[in-house]
Recover the amino acids of this structure.
């Protein structure tokens, strides 16, 4: 899946997320926020200007969120995104209401909807994590010009001595049998066992 497909799944397949911001003291706050639209411009959601969430967004202009869907842990798909947001007033509001008609029940009149502000998460990075398959599948993505950072454990081939220590403790079997070893980032669950077990420090942890 590419970034656009991941964002679209977050909107259409998951929809409700838990979003995190920080206050003026740097302390975290979370709240439940529905993701309303996704397109080439980013991810769109809205809130009322009277809420503390709105004030934190305006102060920091940065947001992290996660959404998940599934009946239990081993049927769950999760998408997490973090990045920069900007207010766009009531642009796209009518489109949001058209695609999410339940919002008209929460804000039933035009006068009540004057409090709403649409935000666009326009540049960021994220992760798609699927536990409904074993081994689990992980994919990172970025959008809006955000550079993709290394997010998986890696083995330095210059330092790897080809022992079995990392493979013996890997729960998903994502480390190659060839020497020097290599980690498949699509199935690495970031447990850190390999880094702890490596006798020569060849495993590099993600930043």
């Amino acid at each position: 899946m590419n970034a656009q497909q991941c964002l679209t799944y977050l909107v259409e397949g998951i929809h409700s997320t838990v979003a995190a911001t920080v206050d003026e003291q740097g302390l975290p706050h979370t709240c439940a926020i529905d993701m309303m639209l996704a397109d080439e411009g980013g991810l769109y959601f809205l809130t009322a200007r009277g809420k503390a969430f709105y004030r934190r967004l305006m102060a920091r202009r940065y947001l992290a969120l996660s959404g998940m869907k599934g009946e239990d842990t081993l049927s769950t798909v999760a998408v997490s995104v973090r990045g920069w947001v900007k207010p766009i007033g009531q642009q796209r509001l009518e489109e949001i209401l058209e695609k999410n008609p339940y919002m008209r029940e929460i804000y039933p009149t035009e006068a009540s909807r004057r409090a709403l502000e649409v935000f666009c998460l326009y540049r960021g990075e994220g992760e798609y994590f699927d536990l409904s398959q074993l081994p689990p599948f992980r994919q990172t993505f970025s959008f809006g010009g955000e550079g993709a950072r290394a997010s998986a454990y890696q083995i330095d081939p210059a330092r790897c001595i080809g022992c079995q220590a990392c493979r013996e403790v890997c729960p998903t079997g994502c480390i190659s049998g060839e020497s020097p070893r290599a980690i498949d980032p699509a199935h690495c669950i970031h447990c850190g066992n390999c880094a702890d077990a490596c006798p020569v420090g060849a495993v590099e942890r993600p930043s």
